[in-house]
Write a structure and sequence with these properties.
Largest sheet: 2 strands, antiparallel
Distance between the termini: 24 Å
Number of strands: 2
Strand order of the largest sheet: 1-2
Order of helices and strands: HHHHHHHHHHHHHHHEHE
Number of helices: 16
Strand content: under 5%
């Protein structure tokens, strides 16, 4: 089973950028404005886009499924957003927005056979995502499948990221972290000069008060997770690493069902799509789906005023950090990331043809119409090396320069 943990994390790195286009692309902003949402704040559209699969959910349900958001913040927008547009209208608009975003990014590649193949592979993985105790994954999997390959691929990516996110919340509960403690423990994984980030002025992330942040810090210190300077102790780092490993374990099911060979093929097909998303510059730190807006905002494509330390929550984004023991300050290009994620033997540093790798080898086996049996494929795993935490890496710039290992990470 452990062989699929790296596959689960690697595939998430490939699919998360595609899913996250919904939250900051200009086309999506215009669609949200057309529905009547105030787009000067990210929260009305964010809660509408992400919550609509649950129906007209109330604040208690949303707080329970999002977990690390303050219930007070959620209550400011839920259920009020449903008086602007109902869930069914929001879901239709969500697909319109994604259609416009991906049509611009991918152009004539939208109709090539490789995109249809990627959509089918991703859908098979999504359909094998167990939804027990995973409300957001289940709600998205209940939606009708779009016919267009690029929309089917996006919806598959959404099911798979929510499947992972729901599992991550289970991991947080298993480790005994309440919502605010989850954020503080992740923030404390910064190193060097960034160790002081877990401070009261950062408490506005996801709506927590400075007192709540301080109290969570004190509780974690009493458990031996946080040192007096605000950094994570060795025990705290080990516990966070174990939590991330458990998240990978809980996310591995769809990829075990798909098999390594097909997962490698999907990763190979997704590479130019992910490149197009990164190169567009739309994945600013406030574009990821589980974040908050800090006071002062952030310039497009860059960190907020004062910078975003490793382990911190950038404006609107998930925490960005380093694995225990990893030196801060390194920089990895997007091309290095795609080489790391390409299957063994792939010339990942060569230019990618316009039509989604038309010369790439076909899948080793045909994809059956029924659900894929839970059997590993007789092929090697996707190449893997230790990766840092973090969704959209802080400071990611149009053209593809991303920080330290360029990895996405679980929501805190």
């Amino acid at each position: 089973m452990s062989d699929y943990l790296s596959v689960a994390r690697r595939m998430w790195h490939q699919l998360e950028p595609l899913h996250a286009t919904l939250y900051s692309a200009p086309e999506a902003l215009r669609v949200a404005a057309g529905l009547g949402y105030d787009i000067t704040s990210r929260w009305p559209r964010y809660f509408a886009w992400r919550t609509a699969p649950l129906g007209a959910a109330g604040p208690e349900l949303v707080a329970a499924t999002y977990y690390t958001f303050s219930p007070r913040l959620i209550a400011q927008y839920i259920p009020r957003i449903w008086s602007t547009a109902g869930p069914a209208e929001v879901l239709d608009a969500r697909l319109r927005a994604v259609d416009r975003v991906l049509s611009r990014l991918l152009g004539d590649r939208l109709t090539c056979g490789q995109l249809a193949e990627a959509a089918e592979l991703a859908r098979r993985a999504a359909e094998n995502a167990g939804t027990a105790a995973r409300p957001l994954a289940a709600a998205n999997l209940d939606l009708p499948w779009p016919d267009a390959p690029h929309l089917m691929l996006w919806q598959s990516a959404t099911v798979l990221r929510e499947h992972r996110g729901d599992g991550h919340l289970a991991a947080l509960l298993t480790c005994g972290l309440d919502p605010c403690e989850a954020l503080v423990s992740h923030a404390a994984t910064g190193t060097g000069a960034d160790r002081g980030w877990a401070a009261p002025e950062s408490a506005a992330a996801r709506g927590w008060s400075a007192q709540e942040w301080s109290d969570a810090h004190d509780r974690l210190a009493a458990r031996g997770w946080i040192a007096p300077d605000g950094s994570a102790t060795l025990r705290g780092r080990r516990e966070r690493a174990a939590l991330e490993q458990l998240t990978d374990q809980l996310a591995a099911g769809p990829w075990r069902a798909l098999g390594r060979a097909r997962a490698e093929r999907l990763a190979h097909l997704l590479r130019p799509l992910a490149d197009a998303v990164f190169a567009s510059g739309i994945l600013t730190p406030d574009s990821t789906p589980s974040g908050s807006t800090a006071p002062g905002g952030a310039p497009p494509g860059g960190p907020p005023p004062g910078g975003v330390p490793p382990g911190a929550i950038p404006p609107g984004g998930l925490p960005v950090g380093l694995l225990p023991g990893e030196a801060p300050g390194a920089r990895t290009s997007r091309d290095t990331l795609t080489r790391a994620t390409a299957p063994a033997g792939t010339a990942a540093d060569h230019p990618v043809p316009d039509c989604l790798l038309p010369n790439a080898p076909a899948p080793q086996e045909p994809i059956p119409d029924e659900r894929i049996p839970h059997e590993p494929a007789p092929h090697g795993p996707i190449p893997h090396e230790p990766l840092p935490h973090g969704p959209l890496p802080a400071g990611a710039a149009p053209g593809g320069t991303v920080p330290a290992g360029a990895a996405w990470a679980s929501s805190p």
